[in-house]
Amino acid sequence: MKQIHKLLNLVLPAITILAICLMLPFLSVFKFTDFIFRSLFPENMKGKHLAYEYAKKGAYLTLIARREETLRKVADKAAQLGSPDVLVIPADVSKVDQCKQFIDEVVNHFGQLDHLVCNAGMVFHCAFEDATNLTTFEQMMDINF
């Protein structure tokens, strides 16, 4: 048994290093090719990825955004991916009254609300020195946090 362990301690490290040296060039070429392909042909997943993943799992979806035409396209693809029912509601999540309204609409349509994924975000750009009045960031903070 000790001789087998000694043999394995001598042979296995050498085989492992040899296997790594043989596989590393192929892996590097694959990763580089994948990087180039993704750089040349990026998929625009803005606002869509979560909906598609939920649709693949067979979830009932409600899609809410300001642009109804874009929502309809996402809803059609979500239905193709397996979502049994997709409700489209054009609304602005930065307005509290519209948020309350679409929550009520979802509960009335589906009877319940299991998950609420808020993927909305807002950003303001300015130099640090120009940010003298922090109350201008209140709406952004309310939406993002």
UniProtKB/TrEMBL annotation:
- Does this UniProt record's set of keywords contain Membrane? yes
Q: Transmembrane stretches, by residue range?
A: 7-30
The record's subcellular locations are: Membrane
One MF annotation (Gene Ontology) recorded for this entry: oxidoreductase activity
User: Which UniProt keyword terms apply here?
Assistant: Membrane, Oxidoreductase, Transmembrane, Transmembrane helix
Keyword hit for Membrane: yes
| Superkingdom classification of source | Eukaryota
Recorded topology in the membrane:
Single-pass type II membrane protein
Taking the first listed entry, what is the main subcellular location of this protein, grouped into a coarse class?
membrane
Report the GO terms under cellular component.
cytosol; membrane
The similarity comment for this entry is: Belongs to the short-chain dehydrogenases/reductases (SDR) family.
| Official protein name in the record | Uncharacterized protein
